[in-house]
């Protein structure tokens, strides 16, 4: 029996995020390569929102969000790895429509 393709709907205050490809090896402002295995203080990660639950108020699909790497759930859908977080675990949103931003841009 062949499984039909089903649409995923996030529930409650859950957000489905795909981590940006930039995670891993990076360069300092002086050009020094910092490997992904380097120990750093709790580093936050940027990701793109791919799904939101019906109680999510501050982010939309397509927004870039900043979140911590603690207490996250991983799920694989059609070969891509996504993270499922609660909206309250997000620290910032980078979107074109911000009303009360910091004045900083990506």
Description:
This protein has 106 residues and is mainly beta. Helix content is 0%, strand content 39%. The protein has strands spanning 14-19, 26-27, 33-34, 44-52, 64-68, 73-77, 80-86, 90-94. The protein has a 6-stranded antiparallel beta sheet with strand order 6-7-1-4-5-8, with no helix packed on it. A hairpin with a 2-residue loop joins strand 6 (73-77) and strand 7. The protein is globular and about 50 Å long. The mean pLDDT is 78.
List keywords for this structure.
single chain; 10 Kd Chaperonin, Protein Cpn10, Chain O; 106 residues; mainly beta
Rg, alpha carbons: 16 Å
Q: What is the mean predicted local confidence, pLDDT?
A: 78
By CATH, the architecture is named Roll
**End-to-end C-alpha gap:** 47 Å
Contiguous helical run count? 0
Question: In terms of topology, how is this protein built?
Answer:
Elements: E1 14-19, E2 26-27, E3 33-34, E4 44-52, E5 64-68, E6 73-77, E7 80-86, E8 90-94
Antiparallel strand pairs: 1-4, 1-7, 2-3, 4-5, 5-8, 6-7
Explain briefly what this protein structure is.
The protein is mostly beta strands and 106 residues long.
């Amino acid at each position: 029996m062949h499984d039909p393709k089903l649409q995923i709907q996030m529930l409650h205050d859950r957000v489905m995020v795909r981590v940006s490809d930039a995670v891993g090896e990076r360069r300092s402002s002086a050009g020094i390569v910092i490997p992904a295995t380097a120990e750093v203080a709790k580093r936050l990660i940027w990701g793109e929102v791919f799904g939101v639950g019906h109680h999510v108020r501050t982010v939309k699909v397509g927004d870039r969000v900043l979140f911590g790497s603690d207490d996250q759930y991983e799920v694989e859908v059609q070969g891509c790895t996504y993270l499922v977080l609660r909206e309250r675990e997000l620290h910032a949103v980078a979107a074109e429509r911000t009303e009360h931003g910091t004045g900083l841009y990506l």
